[in-house]
Amino acid sequence: MIDILSPSFTNGHKYMGKSNVTTATTPAEGIAPPSPRLSMDENTLAMLMEDKQLQENKRTSAVLDQSMVEEEPEELLQTIQANDDQSTSKKPIIDTSMNMVSDAHYINHNKNFPYQSPTAVEFAHDPSTYLVNKTKSLVYWEYPSHSAGLLCFILGGTWMTRYYSVLYLLSGLFTVVTSINWMYVNVNFHSHRILSGKRAETILHPHGGRLLAQKRRTWFTEAQVDHACEVTMNLMEGILKQVIDLVLIEDSVRSIYAVGISFMVWTLASLLSMKTMVMVMTVISFVVPRLYLEHQEKVDAWVLERKQKAHLWAQRHHAQCQTWLRQYHIAGQYLMAGLTVCYQSLSQLTLFLYEKQQQWIKQRQHAATALKQKEVQAPTTADTAADDDVVKTAAVDEADDASVAN
Questions:
Q1: Where does the sequence pass through the membrane (predicted)?
Q2: How far apart are alpha carbons 13 and 323 in whole angstroms?
Q3: Phi then psi for 40, rounded to 5 degrees?
Q4: Residue bearing the bigger pLDDT, 227 or 38
Q5: CA angle, residues 357, 359, 364, in degrees to nearest 5
Q6: Alpha carbons 254 and 22: distance in angstroms, whole number
Q7: What string of H, E and C letters represents the secondary structure of 329-344?
Q8: Mean pLDDT score, 354-379
């Protein structure tokens, strides 16, 4: 068996006993290409060079991270190249100037859109995380074309439905598209029939292929319906889980933010129409996060400065604040005592008025009962008097008859 690493193995190439490696004076020249067959010394040197390249890449990324805010990309390149020039005199290294230029170009390219989505999550595995990542990708404008298209679609659709009904838009769209296709098909048919002299049976329909494919196609299969139902259920489940987490205060900061947003929407709903509020909230959702991401350093610095000023003011006026708190506490105690007395007085007054009302109702009931009894007794007395008058009249008549007979 022939040892391919031994000096006697040539295979058509002249073997060289020592590695012919040249070092360059500048990083741009790099290292001479290796011989066709590497010896053991050249393998060791290649491993050392790879290790050196990894160290230089780590150092380059660290310098870029530390100086990204303070220095411009050109100054970063000059600093990195100066460090590389100092290290080239010690050991042969591989040229990394092109990598640094590409890194700087990547920084400049992503300066306006620095947001990057986290590791991709499948919708079926974790619907809530998938929805959160997609929403952040849209509102942070990770892909400007997607975000701009969705923003224009929402604003345009809301604005159109503000002045026109959905039925009006759909019927108008159907009318326009169908009319244009009708004119196109008939002009194509009659032009071929008249100008070309073709028979009607030989003229092809301009949408014949589409019609044939449409007849053979099944628009909604059972698998598609099952998939759509599953996606809808997962979507609703993800939204419901997020709402329950907010209501049950899983995270206090998120919940208080949600309460603030809900209160703002509640207030705006009493002042603005639904469609106007949707347009305003859409613009805010697509503009404010992006502006904060672009000016995050300035905004964070401004917020930190205000927090520091508030902390200093609280330290300076700590005693006065404590005095105010004690005064407010005493005033609150007096206020609570006064409210308690007022509540008790109102309770007693309400009870007194209730008792008087019950007495008055009872008196009214007694008076009504007595009046009814009098009304019942009055007809009885009248009937008795009438009977007495009849008896007296009969007696007088009898007396007159007796006197006449005598």
A1: 166-185, 263-288
A2: 95
A3: -65, -35
A4: 227
A5: 95
A6: 61
A7: HHHHHHHHHHHHHHHH
A8: 83
User: What whole-number distance in Å separates Cα of residue 285 and Cα of residue 150?
Assistant: 12
Contact at 8 Å (CB) between 142 and 115?
A: yes
What is the chain's alpha carbon radius of gyration, rounded to the nearest angstrom? 49
**CB neighbour list of residue 63: distance below 8 Å, 6 or more residues apart:** 76, 79, 80, 83
Token pair of 236, please? 């609703």
Residue pointed to by tokens 């979507």 = 235
Cβ 7 vs Cβ 17: under 8 Å: yes
Q: Max Cα separation, the chain? A: 192
* Mean pLDDT along residues 90-102: 39
CB-CB neighbours of 64 under 10 Å: 20
Whole-number Å distance between alpha carbons of 16 and 14? 7
Q: What are the CB-based long-range contacts (under 8 Å, 24+) for 382-388?
A: none
Residue type, 8: S
Q: How far apart are the C-alpha atoms of 105 and 136, rounded to whole Å?
A: 25
Specify the pLDDT at position 384.
64
Highest mean pLDDT among 49-53, 127-131, 360-364, 380-384: 360-364
